[in-house]
């Protein structure tokens, strides 16, 4: 995060953990559950420019947003996320604040506003030269504006420009 903290999604223990750069535990929160702030198999993490933490709460089929101290901010649903093999979604936030997620079982990458409004869905064939089959990982290069997607079939797809709203 902007202060140098490192966050870990402790999937099996249904929690989030924050460490300093020396590896010292700073905070942990979550616990198994479906109420706001609780988690079920958290997977991917991303931090926006304001330092908010976005969590792919896979088993609950939603994105949850937290402040760096673990305070719950908001959540929104992501259709297609569920506790199932090859449904290990990842998440990234682009410089404009769009929240990009992989939805492996639906074979899609989606973009949401920070408040959870779906603004774009991309299927592998629609990505042109950067096609993918089953997207798992995702990252946004803030300098080149490339959206990079890792594919289950061991390939990388890089969209040259982050598709706009």
Question: What are the key terms here?
Answer:
globular, 4-stranded antiparallel sheet, 165 residues, mainly beta, 0% helix, single chain, 14 strands, 44% strand
Walk me through the structure.
By secondary structure, the protein is mainly β. It has strands at about 5-10, 15-20, 25-30, 40-45, 55, 60-65, 70-75, 90-95, 100-105, 110, 120-125, 135-140, 145-150, 155-160. The strands form 4 sheets. A 4-stranded antiparallel sheet has the order 4-5-6-7, with no helix packed on it. A 4-stranded antiparallel sheet has the order 8-9-10-11, with no helix packed on it. The model has no long low-confidence stretch (mean pLDDT about 90).
The averaged pLDDT comes out at 90
Give the overall shape: globular
Q: Into which percent range does the helicity of residues fall?
A: under 10%
How is the main sheet built?
Answer: 4 strands, antiparallel
Low-confidence stretches: none
Q: What is the number of beta strands?
A: 14
Give a brief rundown of this model.
The chain has 165 residues and is an all-beta fold. Helix content is 0%, strand content 44%.
SSE inventory with pairings:
Blueprint: E1 6-10, E2 15-19, E3 25-30, E4 42-47, E5 53-57, E6 62-66, E7 72-77, E8 91-93, E9 99-103, E10 108-112, E11 118-123, E12 135-140, E13 147-151, E14 155-159
Antiparallel strand pairs: 1-2, 2-3, 4-5, 5-6, 6-7, 8-9, 9-10, 10-11, 12-13, 13-14
